[in-house]
Specification:
The chain is an all-alpha fold. It has a single domain (about 55-235), classed as Tetracycline Repressor, domain 2, CATH 1.10.357.10. It is built from 11 helices and no strands. The protein has helices at about 5-30, 35-45, 45-55, 55-80, 85-105, 105-115, 125-140, 155-180, 190-205, 210-215, 220-235. Helix 4 packs parallel to helix 8, helix 5 (about 85-105) runs antiparallel to helix 8 (about 155-180) and helix 8 packs across helix 9 (about 190-205). It starts with a helix and ends in a 6-residue tail after the last helix. The model is unreliable at about 145-155 (pLDDT under 50).
Length: about 240
Amino acid sequence: MSIRDRREREKEQRRNDIINAAEKLFFAKGYDDVSMNDIATEVELSKATLYLYFDNKEELFFAIVLRGTLILNSTIKEEIEKAKSGLEKVFAFRKAYYDFTKNYRDYIRMYKYFQSGRFNIKKIIDKEYIKGTICQIKGDSSVPKNFQDENVANQYLKEIMELRSERFTVMCNSIQIGIDDGTIRSDVDPVEAAVLLSSIAKRMSDIPPDHEKILESRGIDHDKFVIDVEDLIRHMIMNYTKK
């Protein structure tokens, strides 16, 4: 291994050590109660050294959100590949998402905070982002990847939004496959249904406490509620005319 390669590996290892330290603190205390000084102390580096790797705390937070997003997308794609029909792919997607919310609660908390309005992510949800997502849904590979705008300096943020677009595309395409193979109703709009299913999925982990108590009084715990909702969605989109 050359000296240059060894230095690059050491630099990447230090970068990962910093992200690990920040992740530990963000998970334990939340974003607002952690400072760059805290992170420097945790990773046993000077604050000046920290800034050689990350411009600010926000960039570090995005790096952690990206970690969770990569795990989520990978999990979804693995489950989708196992499913055969379009209808099965839709519910493989939803199961993977639900399992992620149960197994990676800290990453879900970070992602919710990421979407809370605390950060200016609207700056890249522009016409090019929408156009890129629509072209992905249509399978138009001739269109350049999203987020090539040089004004968006944070590469972590770009990648998070690219993966978000990818996830939405996977769901839309799964619905379209179901329409094509006859397992999903032909009058279902893939994009509209994907938006609805995405909205439902995000709310499933945020059921108000009083509603949870009401469900429990009827013998319905959270897992059973999720199963019942999935059954309801299946009835909504399934093509019963297919023989």
